[in-house]
Design goal:
The structure is a single chain. This protein is 73% helix and 8% strand. By secondary structure, it is an alpha+beta fold. The protein folds into two domains: 12-317, no CATH class; 354-517, Histidine kinase-like ATPase, C-terminal domain (Heat Shock Protein 90, 2-Layer Sandwich), CATH 3.30.565.10. It has a five-stranded mixed sheet with strand order 2-4-5-7-6.
Length: 518
């Protein structure tokens, strides 16, 4: 009698538990990496926001001091002491209050080593403010006493004090920029160090994949061998046939279970990879937003000084017939253009929470159009079609006004450019229609023009940041509008055909009570 020697089943469940343990380890490592990235980005973002608020306050202090200097000069040369002195004292009080806020913000943001330097710089600024205020009071006193020459000399000395104060403000702004740069460098270093861990996790996942492949190959070979053993047993007896049938069913169940576990393992690894990619992308966008906000603030600070200087210059040359009014007007237009670009940068990078309030959207939109109509080219005819019938909608007036203003400006530039030369108009009768409509799930604000339209290849890229077809644009207008719409839990829809104009639609959701009423 021939006896077929059958080999024992290996303990394949141990291999499965080993692979499952590696899978759990990889997921735990990925979660740890994600936590480290989120913590690092959160700390860096908090420091950057405090420094950003400090930069804004320092810019406001500089503006207050510039206005105060203007009030002092106006008081001495015009003789209107009481009113200008009140203006001066009010602005000095506001400047000191903002300086106290800067102390608090920088004290929470800076490291111990940086705090000592910041305390020294703020002490210098406080001392410079005291000296400047004392000299200004001397100027007011001499003016009241009728000593015009002494008052003029005191004003000149106050200008020297003012220049010293501005230098100290520039010093602390430069130092805050260095602290901001060091903060970004630290965040970058942390990201680089975590990248090495990411590579280790990727290597671990690769090892798991290889093990799963080998495991599947082993199980397949094992099943093939077992089936051969079952076929031999089936040929010997009916009893062996029954055993073979039962074993085949067990093998099928094992195979199905293994296939299911493999699919789950593959899904888990893909989900982990997608989560890591999303975290890295968000970190990069946050760094881009902080960099954009920093650049915008650093440009707007000296731009305020240029605006103030141009205003003082215009006051001094008024009625002198020097023939430089055109150049001064060109300076003011250039300042407005730069300020608009800075506003677009800040709109794109702003991530502060909205201040929504339920209000009559039609009435607000009508007031906004009346206010903006004076800034648009006069050649463009504006038609307003309001269809909400006094419906109250929750929205942030400041953010939504920036979005509507951007859409109006883009439409006018597409139709008439700057509006100076009719020969350069894209259409002979430029028209702009602003309308609102009530839908089942929300409201819409539509801005429609009869301009040249948008080609399909540009329409695909118009939502991308920094993409522009203008020689002077930033490419952040439409992305900023879309970001504002998303912050309202809404969306931006764009419909356009070449030669048939374009329609930009902002959809805003209704509140729960308004949806029930609708």
């Amino acid at each position: 009698m021939n006896v077929v020697r059958q080999s024992r089943w290996p303990r394949i469940h141990l291999v499965y538990f080993a692979l499952a343990s590696l899978d759990i380890l990889a997921i735990a490592a990925g979660l740890w990496l994600s936590h480290q990235l989120i913590t690092s980005q959160g700390t860096s973002l908090a420091i950057s926001e405090r420094i950003e608020r400090s930069a804004t306050l320092m810019r406001d202090i500089s503006d207050r001091m510039t206005d105060a200097q203007g009030d002092l000069i106006e008081a001495v040369y015009s003789g209107r002491i009481t009113q200008q002195q009140d203006f001066f004292e009010t602005k000095m009080v506001l400047a000191r209050q903002h300086l106290g806020k800067v102390k608090q913000e920088l004290g929470n943001a800076a490291q111990e080593k940086a705090k000592a330097r910041i305390v020294v710089l703020l002490t210098r600024i406080e001392r410079a403010v005291e000296l400047y205020e004392d000299q200004a009071k001397t100027s007011f006193a001499l003016t009241i006493a009728g000593d015009h020459d002494g008052a003029v000399a005191a004003v000149r000395l106050s200008q020297s004090r003012y220049a010293t104060l501005r230098q100290h403000i520039r010093d602390i702004n430069q130092y805050m920029a260095l602290v901001q740069t060091a903060n970004r460098a630290g965040a970058t270093a942390t990201l680089k160090s975590l990248t090495s861990y990411e590579k280790m996790i990727a290597a671990m996942i690769a090892v798991i994949v290889v093990c799963v492949i080998l495991y599947g190959h082993f199980v397949g070979a094992l099943m093939k061998r077992k089936f051969r053993e079952l076929e031999a047993a089936l040929a010997r007896s009916e009893e062996a046939e029954a055993v073979a049938t039962a074993s085949a069913e067990d093998l099928r169940k094992v195979n199905d279970e293994i296939a299911r576990l493999n699919r789950e393992l593959a899904d888990n690894m893909q989900a982990l990879k997608d989560a890591q990619d999303e975290i890295v992308r968000k970190g990069q966008m946050e760094q881009l937003g902080r960099l954009t906000a920093t650049i915008a603030h650093e440009i707007r600070n000296p731009l305020g000084s240029v605006r103030t200087s141009a205003f003082v210059l215009a006051r001094k040359i008024k009625d002198t017939n020097l023939g430089v009014e055109v150049q001064v007007d060109r300076i003011n237009k250039g300042i407005d253009r730069c300020d608009n670009i800075i506003t677009q940068l800040l709109d794109f990078s702003r991530n502060k929470p909205l201040r929504c309030e339920a209000a009559d959207l039609d009435s607000w939109l009508e007031r906004t159009l009346i206010e903006e109509a004076g800034r648009l080219p006069p050649a463009v005819a504006i038609c307003c079609e309001l269809g909400l019938d006094g419906r109250h909608v929750p929205f942030d007036p400041g953010r939504l006004q920036r979005a509507v203003t951007n859409l109006l400006s883009n439409a006018c530039e597409a139709m008439v450019g700057q509006g100076d030369d009719p020969a350069k108009f894209a259409v002979s009768d430029p028209r702009l229609v602003v309308s609102t409509a009530l839908l089942d799930d929300g409201v819409t604000i539509m801005v429609t023009d009869n301009g040249p339209g948008i080609p399909d290849d540009i329409l695909e890229k118009i939502r991308e940041p920094l993409f522009t077809t203008k020689s002077f644009g930033t490419g952040l207008g439409i992305p900023a509008v879309e970001q504002i719409a998303k912050q309202h839990n809404g969306r931006l829809d764009i419909v356009s055909k070449p030669g048939a104009g374009a329609r930009f639609t902002i959809w805003l959701p209704l509140s729960a009570e308004d949806r029930e009423a609708a």
